[in-house]
Amino acid sequence: MFARPLYLFASVGVMLLSILFFLTLMRGGSAENMPVAVVDLDQTSISRRLIHEMQATPSVDIQMITNSYPEARKAMQQGKIYGIFVVPEGFYRDMVDFKRPQMDFYVTNAYTVGGNTAYKQMLTMVNLTSGAFQREVLRKKGLPDNVIMHRIQPLVIEGHMVANPWGNYSVYLVSTILPGILGLICLMLTIFTIGFELKMRTSHAWLRAAGGNYTVAMIGKLIPYTLIYLILGVGCHLILYHYAGFPVYGSSVRLMFGLLLFIFAMEALGIFLIGLLPTLRDALSIGALYAMLGFSLSGFTYPQMSMLAPVKALTYLEPLRYYYLIYVNEALMAAPVQNNLPHMLALTAFMLASLLVAPRLHRALVYQNYPLK
Questions:
Q1: pTM of the model
Q2: Higher per-residue pLDDT: 107 or 164
């Protein structure tokens, strides 16, 4: 392990870089300072006030104020801005005359997060501007503020986010994607450490060091890596739920135990794949595809209930799916322990996969009957 720095970099290095990247990606909990342009064709005090209030919001950053739409469109095509907010000519005059001026804004969905964030913020500003104008008109008619607010917003929706009151998107994203990356590391390095012995034809020396016992050889080979994975898993848990302050409303111990089961399950699947395909390149290719699909099939970005039936069936073959459900039950819902028992048993069942290929992998280590390239 220490003779080949690749092992440590692919485990410790990749995990630390991932933690640093994702925890600094959205420090405020959501995307901020998305660059937009404003095309001000009205050039009045109202349009300037509207621009000032938009600039004061943390979600967008006005990079360009112009009276030329082609100029703003060119900047969007060059990828410099994610949205264009157009204040039409005669905007203030039409508002005073109750002619319902039309507000136009354009976003680019080539950048999904940037475009959606810019769209949401510009739509919010249009609604607030409309409400503010109605309030001023009704005030001039002599109506009290309580009556005005009932006319502007007859139905008030109060949202109380119990599990994540800050609306921090990182809580949902990072809490699953970082364990998923750790599982990817466990799977790929397990395949590589065993497959490298096969490729370099050193499996005979490995078995001799274990006294010819396959079980002893496998345990001895994986103990150092397993310790590294466990340290990384515990460290990731402490960083997310103690240092970063991500919420855990249930049992932090059970959540960590679920992460450890997930690590063991991914290791077992690594043994299964290299045993099923005892050729390094084939096992690594299948392992990479399998692990990457786990991020989509786990259900934390797209709900499982909305998937097509054949795809939904595949979700049960991904350990990350079960860890995600444990996380939701423990961290967000504080569900009773019996809710997580099926998911923990499922992760335990994945560990048995390594036993299914033990005879085949043992024969591969002994006879080395596989292609070199």
A1: 0.80
A2: 107
